[in-house]
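Q: Could you fold this chain for me?
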Amino acid sequence: MGRNQQVRLLGIILLLTSCRFALASSSEQQHWMEVHSNHFVVLTDMDTNHARSVAYRFEQMRYVFGGVMQKSTVNMPVPLQIIGFRSRAELLQYAPLYQGKPVDMAGFFEASPDRDFIALDLSTDDWSTALHEYTHALVHANFPPVPAWFDEGLAEYFATLKISNNGLEIGNISNANRMALSNMPAIKAGIPASKFTLHNVEGGQFSLEEALKHGPVLLVFFKISCPTCQFTLPYLERLYQGLKGKSVPAIVGISQNNQKDTAAFLRQYGVTFPVLLDDPRGYPVSNAYGITNVPTLFYVGQDGTIEVASVGWSRKDLEQITQRVEQDAKVANIALFRAGEQIPDLKAG
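A: Sure. Below is the predicted structure, expressed as structure tokens.
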């Protein structure tokens, strides 16, 4: 268990202790409550209806998992404690950290030797991250070791679980992914890049056709809620800083979020390279480039041909892109990675 995980787990335990002490007190200011179901305990600072809804949803998740996987008994080696926060701000006090900053997410799963925890932002019903991680725990507790592709596929499948008055839905594509998908195949290296014009975060315009007249362009498609994007963009900022003020090659982000949320993301993660806004009503540029996952990077040569295409986090691809940037900018030894950093080879988008 890493140091950050240990600190976060300690924080959750201290929260539980303080909340239960308050539950036992008669303070009128206390608003935490605890609700029990057959298999879950929900602690929340919202009302009883929200707490019961959370417990019901996870009971349904457990039931559906057993039915789909044909398990008459669903086992968990340790109890699961669900903590429901009334706001994202409260949740982020205990969220995983990246470079000292909390990762913006609607929920997360935390394992410990004697109890597992799920923390949720109850101001939204998008709990896909928490359901995804809970599925991993169910798979590991109820099956022998399985291949990673199977484990991840099941987690993505069960993360789509929705409960409504009409019953249960599972396996539906999310609205965000439906927007991003198109009938076009994903763009590969060697194919001409689609020309486009978009507004940037500051309100100005950027034309790919005009930019290519000056030199190559690195396009970076991202979404602010994507953990892999949150991991990747600070490294691309290092690449941008390594250009030492040179405008060629251009490094340009393309956000799938609105101006306000994108600007807040850029401040939080220290991103200063230019960022454009793809229209969230239809994502025309993302669709033109066949984007199905983010982050997706395209290094476009001055002749308009895509020279490198990369999806998700790939250390090898990023090193290749860095070499292209150094060559075209006539700079050397851009410090993309630093001593002591644990840099993964791959992270899925």
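A (continued): Residues 3-172 form a domain with the Glutaredoxin fold (CATH 3.40.30).
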